[in-house]
Amino acid sequence: xxxxxxxxxxxxxxxxxxxxxxxxxxxxxxxxxxxxxxxxxxxxxxxxxxxxxxxxxxxxxxxxxxxxxxxxxxxxxxxxxxxxxxxxxxxxxxxxxxxxxxxxxxxxxxxxxxxxxxxxxxxxxxxxxxxxxxxxxxxxxxxxxxxxxxxxxxxxxxxxxxxxxxxxxxxxxxxxxxxxxxxxxxxxxxxxxxxxxxxxxxxxxxxxxxxxxxxxxxxxxxxxxxxxxxxxxxxxxxxxxxxxxxxxxxxxxxxxxxxxxxxxxxxxxxxxxxxxxxxxxxxxxxxxxxxxxxxxxxxxxxxxxxxxxxxxxxxxxxxxxxxxxxxxxxxxxxxxxxxxxxxxxxxxxxxxxxxxxxxxxxxxxxxxxxxxxxxxxxxxxx
Amino acid sequence: xxxxxxxxxxxxxxxxxxxxxxxxxxxxxxxxxxxxxxxxxxxxxxxxxxxxxxxxxxxxxxxxxxxxxxxxxxxxxxxxxxxxxxxxxxxxxxxxxxxxxxxxxxxxxxxxxxxxxxxxxxxxxxxxxxxxxxxxxxxxxxxxxxxxxxxxxxxxxxxxxxxxxxxxxxxxxxxxxxxxxxxxxxxxxxxxxxxxxxxxxxxxxxxxxxxxxxxxxxxxxxxxxxxxxxxxxxxxxxxxxxxxxxxxxxxxxxxxxxxxxxxxxxxxxxxxxxxxxxxxxxxxxxxxxxxxxxxxxxxxxxxxxxxxxxxxxxxxxxxxxxxxxxxxxxxxxxxxxxxxxxxxxxxxxxxxxxxxxxxxxxxxxxxxxxxxxxxxxxxxxx
Lengths: 382, 382
Prior knowledge:
Two copies of one chain form a homodimer. The first copy, chain A, is α/β, with parallel strands linked by helices. In chain A, 32% of the residues lie in helices and 15% in strands. Chain A has helices at 7-12, 22-28, 64-69, 86-90, 109-114, 133-138, 151-167, 169-177, 183-187, 205-214, 231-237, 245-248, 271-275, 294-303, 342-361, and strands spanning 35-39, 73-77, 96-99, 120-123, 142-145, 197-201, 220-224, 239-241, 254-257, 281-285, 306-311, 370-373, 376-377. In chain A, the strands form two sheets. Chain A has a seven-stranded mixed beta sheet. The longest helix of chain A has 20 residues, at 342-361. The radius of gyration of chain A is 22 Å and the shape is globular. Chains A and B meet through α7, α8, α9 and α15 of A and α7, α8, α9 and α15 of B.
């Protein structure tokens, strides 16, 4: 049983988490019918418009038939918050909860405490900060995501947002639909990307893919991370490692956030740090909204210190109607969409199915998918 | 005198246009005070917002002091059309007319006939289709542009538009400012660029720069042009030459127009050609609006045959308030801005100054800048 295979037990079977000894297999084995709950966004009239639109409630990752044919129960909903929500009803007896970052079901310590049968929390996509990871670890749960499923999607989206800000696209589009034509009102602050200094905060999978895609644009590329990129790749991309974040940031014309939300990165861009950025800096954040101090971003966009801010992540999500980022000047925000392209959905649906299959068989997941493995946090969350 | 240095005379001085023999120099020499007229867009309150905003009426390419110190007269206006316009007043006695594609002064055969002193037509930027080139050639004029001044700007902008369409960015942005949150309404037709087939119609300077920037996106890249790209570059980019346009087009998920407007390309994308494109094709056109049949694009966007259309060029410009492209579904249009970034303005202002300097000194321009050289059309316009 996954739940009972707690930290204590795992520690006795060896320090290598990929060590699938017969004992561990036995502990991992999880026979019988499972109750699986998936929380996705509803597509309504859009569900029928694309046969590959797998990530919505209506399609439920395309795994219902497969799950039910094996005797499992599969409940799917978008109703995720509050004591009377559909999700809340199933918390006491679900075994597996599948969530997404796009319509996140917040898995609090309280919910984990109530979920007596819960063994496995899967993120269809990447990012598990909607889960109280400490509480999940303390309860001996496993939390995993489909690492890599949408890293290309997000990196491409970041490059789009960089260009949208550098070019001042949004006011141009607005002129068109408002029947106007005023080139000057756009071009007085429209630039080439070429020659600008772009820094990424974090150069993990997404950050690296972004840097590779930026390479032909002839920018000055910088990156900050805990670790240097592999020298061959660093040389190929031509990006410069910056050990000290606060040394890198004031050099950047454009800053892209590519770090997970952890206790270390929460509120990283507060009033003080933003005040030290170059005046007129552009910021792209598809990582997590809570990495920014919400009001500090609004104030800096209003003063012009930040000349443009674009991203698809908010705190909280869905963003309420009165979220100030909807109304601040010079933003190019969208709902949380960068990782839920149709191509991404196909990949993360396949990744969730693969992990469920391994879970039923008592097998390990691909190592990089683990956020919490049977009570033990992955290294980047420590 | 440039005007009198007509085709006939040039032909006698040698077939090499770059051959600056003493005789040619003498013919090119153009002594005395010149009347130079520049037609730019007005910046109004935006002029003061950026010291490098050179391309507007208020800054006039930053060459007024230089011109006047040499005894030349420099008239600048944005009032360009109709018999009572400021430009029309100066047509009879101007020697040089500087125009831009962003706020084009249409130089018709009639205007050329009236312009008895006209010798030189300069485009601050790239593209001279707002000039009746045949009439200009017949009158023995020289027409030149600042080739290369904003090719990077336009190529970057095209990649932005590709991603905006592939990602379905615009509806996402609109949701944000309208207080909505509906991920499904965006993502049911949001894709990765990776793996898609992108074809460029034309692989000149801009097309090549676009292909180079697309390379790391792992697309299937195709190009159609009169000539194959240099094999080394073709191999580096990994793009495939398509000799027959109509064989290439139906293969493309995304089509980018990178061909000048000539009598051969006018109306190239008509109803019939569009009907043969892949259903759901995305089209980016920063080349010229008249390459498309306006109504055929509207109809195909309305039916969904074209799933997205983005560009910054219109027919005519400025686009009237009732231009149907403003109101068709799934567009991401802007006014004509891609080539008038601040970086581009700095380059084309310098290029115009350089050509004026050479004109005053009776020297040749950089060869690639010529559209019409003293009555002779450059090869791509023949």
